[in-house]
Amino acid sequence: MASGDTLAKFLPYDNEPPATTPAAFDIRNGHPVLDFDDAGTARLTAIFSDILSRNYGGGGITVYLTWSATSAVTGTVGWTVEFERVGDGQQDVDLDGFATAQTVTATTVPGTSGLTKITNVAISNGANIDSIAIGEKYRVRIKRDVANDNAVGDVELHCVELKET
Amino acid sequence: MANLTAQQRQDCYRDFVERLMKTTETIGITKSELLDAVNATDDWIEANALVFNSALPLLARTSLSAKQKALLFMAVAAKRFGVL
Description:
heterodimer, A: 165 residues, mainly beta, six-stranded antiparallel beta sheet, 45% strand, globular, B: 74% helix
């Protein structure tokens, strides 16, 4: 595998909701989604886990988020993405050990609330992906960046793609 | 009665957005602009509460509690604009 290849795909049914402030599962016209509200303090969260493909070449990971706004037709939506290496003796699973949050820059919502938008962040290899090695279990945590976006109401996460940068 | 506190206005914002999410209407303003509207609505109510009270017939004005008058106002506004 090389630059540009998909490493993982996550859909709403793949969410492993945290005990507190989980993003809410919802259906929009038959499309499963995860709802993230615009609250300031209790940021809703989605977590997905997988095993890093043995074909990963160390080029870093670009995370693509496909989302839509429930009602907003103006304003911006941003996200944060964090990786956690579980691996071989790397993480006590009774604790969380996510790397520094990476920001998906707030982007203007579509002018029609039912249209989806794809935004992304390229994350460098190493510490920023918590130094996950091939063949290791990892988790990726998604939160809405409500401190830096301004679209009113819920935003719906449709899917997440991890691609080698 | 004094204006709502900043926290109460934030709570109003949350309540409004939760109700909005249950409708099919879109919204074309940002979070801060909507909060400004909440603040302006609270300011308007504060400035005009006595005017509303004076507009009520004497019996309603003297017999209804403040909360009942607020519910009355909400019921009529909601019916006028098809919210209820």
